[in-house]
Specification:
The protein has helices at residues 2-37, 73-104, 110-120, 129-138, 146-173, 177-185, 190-201, 203-218, 222-227, 236-246, 252-278; strands spanning 39-43, 47-51, 63-65, 68-70. Helix content is 69%, strand content 6%. The protein is globular and about 70 Å long. The termini are far apart.
């Protein structure tokens, strides 16, 4: 009996460890960011000393280091928001249309398309960088300032749309056919049916895709770092990376405070959309 109890305690410790450890590690990183951001000096990397707001100077003046002057933070924030403003509606619109078509229409090769979507996600995006660069050059979007930023947003949308389509197809599959038939009998076109009937029903799925799309665009680094060569169109991840790569001696206070500023929109997005995301459930439970 003792052996069984010891084994049960050991299993409980192991299970709780699997849950707690992945949570503690990012929380420690967040705590370090907060401490480093609001301190002029940190002892042994963890103990704050001399509370200050000086590390947040990037909010009201340019970032200078030697002869290098980085863009003011607000134009950079604008660039990140422009990327997200193009990415989110594009991804949501195209993936919801494609998801509806694959779910409700007799699309030739539908099963093959769904398998191909999964197959595509077996390859990392870095493999497509050269091809994507060639594509941007051919359409005249590379090295053209804001056009390059728009090109990055459209490429990111194209990479995200297949999996978003797969997810939304599952939501459309859960909608009873009776609802669709009733709308068609009332004279609705397929486009009206999609916009006025189906989209409101799968609103939780649309919200989830929109949040994931925003996070994907806000955190996009590889495409932005590769294609955005002009500092005037840097996004926040690229600027933060340049602070590490350009500085011979990293200003940890500036880096931590800018990183903390960078994650605030994500936290706000979660806080605002939390109730909607919690409503995600089997859409098949909807009754006509």
């Amino acid at each position: 009996m003792k052996t069984w109890r010891i084994l049960k305690i050991a299993i409980d410790i192991y299970v709780y460890g699997l849950v707690v450890v992945p949570l503690v590690i990012p929380l420690l990183g967040l705590a370090w960011l907060v401490i480093q951001s609001f301190s002029s000096k940190v002892v042994i990397g963890l103990i704050p000393s001399d509370f200050t707001l000086d590390n947040f100077f990037f909010l009201w003046k340019p970032i200078k280091f030697g002869t290098k002057v980085y863009p003011n933070i607000w134009p950079v924030v604008r660039n990140s928001l422009i990327l997200c403003a193009i990415l989110v509606p594009t991804e949501v619109t195209v993936s919801s249309l494609a998801g509806y078509a694959l779910s409700r229409l007799r699309v030739p090769g539908r099963e093959g398309i769904m398998r191909f979507i999964v197959f595509l996600h077996a390859f990392p995006g870095v493999l497509f960088l050269i091809a994507l660069l060639y594509f941007l050059v051919q359409i005249g979007f590379y090295g053209k300032g804001i056009l390059t930023l728009i090109g990055v947003a459209l490429i990111k949308a194209g990479l995200n749309i297949p999996m978003s389509t797969w997810i939304l197809k599952g939501f459309f599959d859960g909608v009873p056919w009776d609802i669709e038939w009733a709308a068609l009998v009332d004279g609705a076109t397929r486009l009206q049916l999609w916009r006025k009937v189906m989209l409101p029903i799968i609103r939780p799925g649309i919200s989830a895709i929109a949040v994931l799309s925003f996070m994907s665009g806000w955190g996009e680094w590889l495409l932005a770092y590769t294609f955005l060569t002009d500092p005037d169109i840097y996004t926040l991840p690229v600027l933060i990376t340049s602070l590490v790569y350009e500085f011979r001696f990293v200003n940890w206070g500036l880096l931590a405070s800018m990183s903390l500023f960078y994650i605030v929109p994500i936290l706000i997005t979660y806080a605002v959309m939390q109730k909607t995301l919690l409503k995600i459930q089997l859409v098949g439970a909807v009754k006509g």
